[in-house]
Amino acid sequence: MRLSQVQHHGYKLPCLMLVGLAFGGLSCQKATTAPSVFGVAAFTVVNAIPNSVNIIPVINTSEPIMYFNGTYTASIGYGGFSEYSPPGGHDTVYVVQDNADTLNIGPKATGQMFFGTLPLKKGGAYSLFLCGADTTSPDYLLTTDTLPYYSPSDSVTGIRFVNLSTGSNAISINQEGSPNGSDVTNLAYKGITSFKQYSNNSTTLDYLFVIRDGATGDSLTQFDFSIAGSYNNGYGLLDPNTGKLLTFKNVTIALIGQPGLTAVVPQSAVLIDDY
Hints:
Blueprint: E1 7-9, E2 42-47, E3 55-59, E4 81-84, E5 89-97, E6 112-120, E7 125-132, E8 138-144, E9 156-163, E10 171-175, E11 184-187, E12 196-199, E13 207-213, E14 219-225, E15 250-256, E16 268-273
Parallel strand pairs: 2-7, 9-15
Antiparallel strand pairs: 1-4, 2-4, 3-5, 5-6, 7-8, 9-12, 10-11, 10-13, 13-14, 15-16
């Protein structure tokens, strides 16, 4: 079954990907049992593996990628993400770097960043965060996402935070000028918060989130929503990935990279779009 990519963010990369869509048939006969659930799952894949080259998720097949040269598939650069719509069920997902031998696939294939059969349900939302110290020791966090709904009168954005920096201490997060840990406290590696509402309207100027070492209070990095106010005609915060308004949307801010002053891939914060 051919699959099609829904949306890609990160680097500007080729656009063909394998994603499945399943459609149920309709019948004019009287139903005697509950109807099947139609639709697809919402599945986001994030590349937070330091020192990785572009990675390629392959969904709903364990067959190798034929004619593999980066032209026929879409890849995700470090710090980037892609959104897919698999049909739901027990979906096979494997992820390789775009310099790997794709004839060698399976649970113990060399050069593979992830292999698993995931219970993605139709209508569900999921995120697969690929992380780890580097490509020799890949790790992952799979989440089932509960995405808040915001009424048109709310004028808010939902923001959650995740720590994907392998080897880091637990982190704390505050907005500039606010006390340490006023937004997040004690978020360990592979810890993720729920979505919190932040005002996003004509009076919103910016949000500068400072990410700190939870033990020492030292600043590790920051994420700045500074493209608001006069830069957006006073309508609120824009998504740096898409340039669109973030009002009524949900996003994730992730700490990625390696801890320490001598890290080859320093820690940084990136924005991931949710649904």
